[in-house]
């Protein structure tokens, strides 16, 4: 499956899950689907027959509310049957609306923001103690989430402990719960900020599969952790959901669902 | 207590290479022997308890047996959500070690008074509270900690506590450890530094001189069911702890023994934890005693 086919499949399944369950956060889930597709198609060393393989790469989703697309991605990869996705958000099911470690392939439950990166530094530090060539730990966080102070504690720790097996991916869609990041709590200058903290920093187009692949393949092993500032569009893939705050909350109506389905299906 | 703890931890680390000690820029003149012996397994995380707590969870997830060492309110209240979501919800082998329990840092002020920590820690059903009353109980409790692989809160005082309990006894979680066997119907029941308080303040009163004294150093929500049978043997029981009434050890006991037959509680059961569903469905976990 090409990255393009994979990301399209994740978008379609995600749309279906959010529509059927009447749940929120579809735009947050769409924002990082291209990153997911490249990670799970080309980058992560994972074994679906042994999800607990000690030498697997770890992926931690810190913006747990955007879990629908991760569940879809894991099901398409074969961690669990695709028909299980229809239980998303239903009573007494494991596919809860914030990412859950009870779901095969998920490393860590989140939902409250600012937990993924500090947990990720723990994983990366532990793997460095255990292996000469440690597996990699990838943590994906939202841009609004970066305001949580715990992230800055973890940035210090990651650099101090030279965790070059740790890769932070910032889903930089510039839209949070009420308005843009700039109007909420400005993050700029971002690239310089990360560099000043002692991290390698790469700012790229978070929807360009080939640039994502190239960047993620060439993470330097220079005793520094790395951050990828992935410029993304919240709601990416469905024109009327892109860059609109309301799609952080709203679930599509039947008409909107069909319209979105057509857009994704006939995407050029 | 602190010294007995670090000696026991060094013993444990010699036998078990999974043992890691993370400190929150604290432990001067206590933790150095561990650091010298196991430099790779000692981390000073700096003054950042949120990161330190999630870091501990991450390392425990990768198979390490992690100890986080700090003062009273810092690894508990400051990092409460990290304890709840990262350590407890994932049921990881992290022992949060808080020194200066109770009012041990008395003249350092309210920020350092650890008198609500039991209340917070016993909210988490996965958590075992370990509050030894003297250095001997520290050692006995470390034998339990060695074998247990779920979240734990070890509350220590400082130094200079007298030994009243027997050394190196097996302490069964939730079971009261006999310290003085006196009147079989009247007893004090202490946890943590309450043991020392019993000797310093209670037994000096002639009214109580024949009372028994038990200590309950390993307790918490996992051991609720064990309390009633121990309690019912006594006509009079007085709990002692250096913690506020709200949420404390005595409150825990009251919740788990029937003080009045006509008082019953209705509440959301621990069975709700980790389940997902709509509010109406989740509230089916309501129990009325």
Topology readout:
The complex is a heterodimer of chains A (268) and B (289).
Chain A: H1 3-21, H2 26-31, H3 33-43, E1 58-61, H4 67-77, H5 116-130, E2 137-142, H6 149-160, E3 166-172, H7 181-184, H8 190-196, E4 200-205, H9 209-217, E5 226-231, H10 254-265
Parallel strand pairs in A: 1-2, 2-3, 3-5, 4-5
Helix pairs in contact in A: 1-3, 1-4, 1-10, 3-4, 3-9, 5-6
Chain B: H1 2-15, E1 19-23, H2 32-37, E2 42-44, H3 49-61, E3 65-71, H4 80-88, E4 94-99, H5 117-121, E5 128-130, H6 135-147, E6 152-155, E7 177-180, E8 183-190, H7 194-202, E9 211-215, E10 218-219, H8 227-231, E11 236-240, H9 249-256, E12 266-268, H10 279-282, E13 286-288
Parallel strand pairs in B: 1-2, 1-3, 3-4, 4-6, 5-6, 8-9, 8-11
Antiparallel strand pairs in B: 5-10, 7-9, 12-13
Helix pairs in contact in B: 1-6, 3-4
Summarize the structure.
Chain A has 268 residues and is an alpha/beta fold.
Q: Which sequence of SSEs, written as H and E, runs from N to C of chain A?
A: HHHEHHEHEHHEHEH
Task: Please state roughly what percent of the residues of chain A sit in beta strands, choosing from under 5%, 5-15%, 15-25%, 25-35%, 35-45% or over 45%.
Answer: 5-15%
Instruction: Give the name of the CATH architecture of chain A.
Output: 3-Layer(aba) Sandwich
How many separate domains of chain A? 1
Coarse morphology of chain B: globular
């Amino acid at each position: 499956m090409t990255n393009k086919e994979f990301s399209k499949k994740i978008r379609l399944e995600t749309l279906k899950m959010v529509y059927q369950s009447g749940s929120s956060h579809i735009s947050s889930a769409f924002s990082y689907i291209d990153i997911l597709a490249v990670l799970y198609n080309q980058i992560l060393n994972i074994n679906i027959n042994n999800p607990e393989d000690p030498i697997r790469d770890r992926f931690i989703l810190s913006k747990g509310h955007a879990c629908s697309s991760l569940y879809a991605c894991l099901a398409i990869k074969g961690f669990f049957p695709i028909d299980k996705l229809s239980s998303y958000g239903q009573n007494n099911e494991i596919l809860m609306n914030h990412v859950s470690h009870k779901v095969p392939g998920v490393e860590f439950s989140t939902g409250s923001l600012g937990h993924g990166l500090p947990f990720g530094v723990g994983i990366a530090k532990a793997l460095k103690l255990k292996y000469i060539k440690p597996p990699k730990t990838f943590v994906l966080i939202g841009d609004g989430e970066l305001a949580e102070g715990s992230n800055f504690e973890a940035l210090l720790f990651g650099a101090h402990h030279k965790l070059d097996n740790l890769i932070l991916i910032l889903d930089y869609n510039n839209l949070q719960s009420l308005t843009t990041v700039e109007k909420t709590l400005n993050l700029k200058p971002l690239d310089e900020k990360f560099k000043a903290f002692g991290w390698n920093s790469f700012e790229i187009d978070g929807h360009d599969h080939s640039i994502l692949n190239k960047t993620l393949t060439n993470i330097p092993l220079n005793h520094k952790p790395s951050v990828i500032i992935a410029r993304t569009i919240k709601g990416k893939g469905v024109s009327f959901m892109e860059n609109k705050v309301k799609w952080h909350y709203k679930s599509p109506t039947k008409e909107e669902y069909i319209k979105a389905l057509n857009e994704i299906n006939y995407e050029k | 207590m602190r010294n007995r703890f670090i000696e026991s931890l060094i013993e444990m680390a010699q036998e078990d290479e999974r043992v890691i000690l993370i400190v929150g820029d604290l432990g001067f003149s206590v933790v150095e022997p561990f650091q010298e012996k196991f430099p790779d397994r000692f981390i000073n995380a700096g003054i950042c308890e949120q990161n330190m707590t999630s870091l501990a969870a991450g390392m425990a997830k990768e198979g390490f047996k992690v100890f986080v060492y700090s003062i009273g309110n810092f690894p508990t209240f400051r990092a409460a959500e990290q304890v709840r979501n990262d350590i407890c919800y994932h049921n990881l082998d992290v022992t949060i070690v808080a020194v200066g329990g109770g009012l041990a840092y008395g003249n350092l002020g309210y920020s350092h008074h650890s008198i609500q920590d039991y209340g917070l820690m016993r909210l988490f059903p996965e958590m075992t509270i370990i509050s030894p009353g003297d250095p001997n109980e520290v050692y006995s409790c470390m034998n339990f900690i060695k074998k247990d692989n779920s979240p734990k809160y070890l509350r220590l005082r400082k130094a200079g506590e007298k030994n009243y309990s027997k050394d190196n006894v097996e302490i069964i979680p939730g079971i009261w450890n006999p310290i003085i066997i006196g009147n079989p119907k009247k007893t004090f029941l202490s946890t943590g530094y309450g043991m020392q308080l019993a000797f310093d303040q209670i037994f000096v009163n002639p009214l109580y001189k024949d009372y028994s004294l038990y200590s309950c150093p390993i307790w918490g929500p996992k051991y609720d069911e064990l309390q009633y049978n121990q309690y019912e043997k006594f006509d009079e029981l007085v709990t002692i702890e250096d913690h506020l009434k709200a949420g404390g050890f005595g409150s825990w006991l009251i919740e788990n023994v029937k003080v009045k037959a006509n008082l019953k509680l209705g509440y959301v059961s621990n069975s709700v934890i980790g389940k997902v569903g709509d509010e109406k469905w989740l509230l089916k976990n309501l129990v009325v005693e």
